Every structure is written in C-alpha cells, then in structure tokens.
Amino acid sequence: MKNKIQAKFKELFGEGGQLFMSSGRINLIGEHTDYNGGYVFPGAINYGIMAQIKLNGTDKVKVFSIDFNEYVEFGLKEEDKPKQSWACYVFGVCRETLKRGGKVAGFDAVFAGDVPLGAGLSSSAALESVFAYALNELNGNGIEKFELAKIGQSTEHNYCGVKCGIMDQFASVFGKEGALMRLNCKTGEYKYFPFHPKGYKLVLIDSCVKHELASSAYNKRRESCERAAKAIRENHPDVDFLSDAKRVWLDEVRDKITEEDFIRAEYVIGEVQRVLDVCDALERDDYETVGEMMYQTHFGLSRLYEVSCEELDFLNKLARKHDVTGSRVMGGGFGGCTINLVKEELYDSFIKAAKEQFAAKFGHEPKVYDVVISDGARKLQ
Ligand code: GLA
Fold first, then answer.
1. What is the pTM of this model?
2. Ligand 1 neighbourhood includes 35 CB (under 6 angstroms)
3. Can you give the pLDDT at residue 118?
C-alpha cells in the first residue's frame, strides 16, 4: 500500500509529502448507543487508510484515490463540493476544519486503504480521520483530538447524509494498540481497557451483504430514539438522551409513542446496561458473560432494532451451534460483519463450518478477518 501511494504521489505531484495513517474499528458492544448519549466499547484495527499529503501553495485540493483510480480537484468554498462521493469526505473534513476556525491551505494528496468497504468497519471514519489529523498537523491548527473526531462526524452529517454518532471517528482518532476504549458519548469521558483475552480470538465474518438504503434506515432509527426520549422527557425533564432513561420510564409512555419507536427504545436502554455489564465482566476476566451479552445484543439488534438481515442471523445462529462464546452483528447493521469471540481451540472448526454452510445457503463464501487492536490516527516515519 505504502509503495503504491508513494509511486503515484511522485508521478502526479513530484517529491515530498508526509505519510499519515488512520484505522477502521471494531466495537465489542454498545451498538446504536452513541447518538443516544450512551456508552460504546470500540477499538481501532489493523485495517486502515494511508495518505501522502503535501501543501501545494494554492487554494486548491488535488487528490487521487488509488482504490477508485480517480483524480479529483476542488476549491475550499462551500459551493466547491465535488460530485464523487469519496471526495465529499475529504471536502467535508476541509470545510468542517475551516468552520472551527482552523486554517486549510491547498494540498496534494494520494491515498489508499485496506478497510473492506461496506463491511461495517468504518472505512469512512478512517478516511475522515486521516485527513482531519493530517490537516491539523500540516496547517499547525492545534485542534484537540476529540474535536478532530467531531470534524469527521460533522462531515458525515453535513456532506454525506448520515446522522451518525461519534463512535467510529472517536475510535479511529483515539485508537491504541492492544486496548479497547469505553467512551461515554454524553460526557466524552473515556477509558482504555487492555484487551488480551487469553485463550480467545476475535474474528469478523463478513456476510458481504450491502444495503443501498442503509443510511436512510439508520437516520430513521435515530429519529425513533429521539421521539421516545422526547416523550419520556415530559415526565422526567432531566432526560437529555434516551440513555438517561430507566426502563420503567419507557413503559410510562408506551401509549404515547408508536410500537415501532417503543421497541427501538427498548433495545437502546437494554444495550446501555449491557456495556456496563461487559466492563464489569472484563475486569473479572469473565469472557463467558461478555459473550452472553454479545448474543443478547444480537437478539436486540435483530428483533427490536431490526438492523440485522437473514445472512447475519444465519451466521449468529451458526456461531451458537458451534459453541462460539459471543457473536453479534457489528456496527450500523443492514449487512456487513458479525463479530465473534471464540475459544482458540474452536476457531478452525467454526471458520470451516461458517464458510461451508454459509456458501451452501447463500451461494458465496463469507470473508473472514482476524483483527488486531491497533493504533488510530498518526503520522508515519
Ligand atoms: C455506525 C455509526 C456509529 C454508530 C454505529 C452503531 O457505525 O457511524 O456512529 O451509531 O453505526 O453503533
């Protein structure tokens, strides 16, 4: 990846430039809790996006994507938004940096990545973070790290049409080798948890399903949660987010909200508690409880939040049948991966069965990614 980037940079822009890198993420537990002010438990992974960047002394951005084999040039004013969707991420990061009073001088860039697209591993957050981090360094803006994550999040909101939470960008910016992070999305407080489960492996199984309408379905889930929180707030004014609500408070408003909004909220309130239970279990090295919580999350995401699909439910059931400790759909859902916590001695037989049985049912093998918890946004060399 590095050699390709450097060769292309030289060809297009000549000498110079600095290399930056940022990562995709996994999330052990805490799904769809971030925009509800709850906890998440992500970590950055060894799949990421690398970019070589150099200020070019103009007011233009010139950027080449190796993976899309496409060159795009744009200015830095709001009306200069490019047409290519990948370029909108880079443009959005520039605009959001400017909106925060940062400086963004024109630059040349070439980038490439190995985060599988549409797998729920946040290739888009990796892209936003690598540019947010690099532009901050190259322009000497001194924007603090949490704000860099917010630049990525606002890029999604304002330039890509997804009303996402902060988890992905946070993980991508703050990731640390060997550590998961528990983030309180309401207060921004976070804690690193070294994650080296002895005798277990974390493995992702990619259904390779991608849903076209995922972003509008995602935004709809968020609206349901906001409506439920608003109804609860009428009785309990201190409820800023759904994560502040007790389960019984949701029952109080059952007649005031739709059944759909009710079950969405029911899932979220349960999930907020599960993250805390998992943290306690991790402190005791109790991976059986961690795994059981993961199965409960899957059940909630599938039946209440309705962001799973046939392929992911199949992989989840298969994991249970093969005594996998924990398994669930990961990320926003509507396709992508399951994350599985599996005992080392069961790993080979599980992967073999998953490949064979999935292929027999759906006509293609799922992809398997062994992930390593890695560093987030950084300068290379
Ligand atoms: C996507 C979003 C995140 C988060 C997850 C679900 O990855 O970008 O903010 O909401 O879905 O947990």
1. 0.95
2. yes
3. 83
